[in-house]
Specification:
By secondary structure, the chain is α+β, with helices and mostly antiparallel strands. It has five helices and seven strands. The protein is 28% helix and 34% strand. The protein binds coenzyme A (COA).
Length: 169
């Protein structure tokens, strides 16, 4: 049966160890890897995934939340330093896509990150992620290229920026 978010709210809560197993399963999805493009070299490497997330959990500078709905862990969202700037990233389990969850989660997450400008990067063809960012006030401020592990080629990406009060400075 198709997942519904009619009942209950999309919520953020602190990440607990048990969530990591759900995040691992969610990031295995091939089409999601293609979509995100900038992924780990081997998403099926559970030990590498757990080690990476353990270091995230230990790093107090990284703001990270589990996205939660009706008792389900539906994804995760985080803010971390990347290329010298504070950036955000998020991942929603495939069965929950297209229901406004990423948009609601990002809107709830932004007040936790009290630094502006705040940045995000997305491969140019990740239409869903681009819409999520635009709906939350981010606008394109640049472009870059990078190697996509998921696609095995260099891909073009947009750099998005959110300024003070949603304005870009
Ligand atoms: C990208 C992603 C976060 C979107 O999550 P989501 O919960 O489905 O997003 P929402 O439901 O909030 O959708 C926001 C908007 O994007 C649109 N959208 C979502 N996925 C889309 C897709 N695959 N193609 C076209 N539009 C899409 C929605 O229609 C909506 O637009 P609208 O309000 O104008 O109708 C999710 O697909 C995902 O986690 N993908 C894998 C990981 C990834 O790409 N992370 C981001 C890396 S930059």
């Amino acid at each position: 049966m198709e997942y519904s978010i009619m009942n209950g709210q999309v919520q953020l809560r602190d990440v607990i160890e048990d969530d990591l197993h759900v995040f691992f399963e969610q990031q295995l999805e091939r089409s999601a890897n293609h979509m995100a493009a900038f992924t780990s070299k081997d998403p099926s490497d559970r030990a590498a995934f757990m080690k990476h997330w353990e270091s995230i959990l230990e790093d107090e500078k990284i703001i990270k939340k589990t996205i939660y709905h009706n008792g389900q862990v539906v994804g995760n969202i985080a803010s971390f330093g990347q290329f010298g700037n504070p950036e955000i990233s998020y991942w929603i389990g495939k069965q929950y896509w297209g229901k406004g969850i990423a948009t609601k989660a990002l809107r709830k997450f932004l007040p936790y990150v009290n630094v502006r400008p705040l940045y995000a990067r997305t491969v140019k063809d990740n239409v869903g992620s681009i819409r999520v960012l635009e709906k939350c006030g981010f606008i394109v401020c640049g472009e870059d290229k990078g190697f996509s592990n998921a696609r095995g080629i260099e891909v073009e990406e947009y750099i998005f920026k959110l300024g003070i009060n949603g304005e870009v400075h």
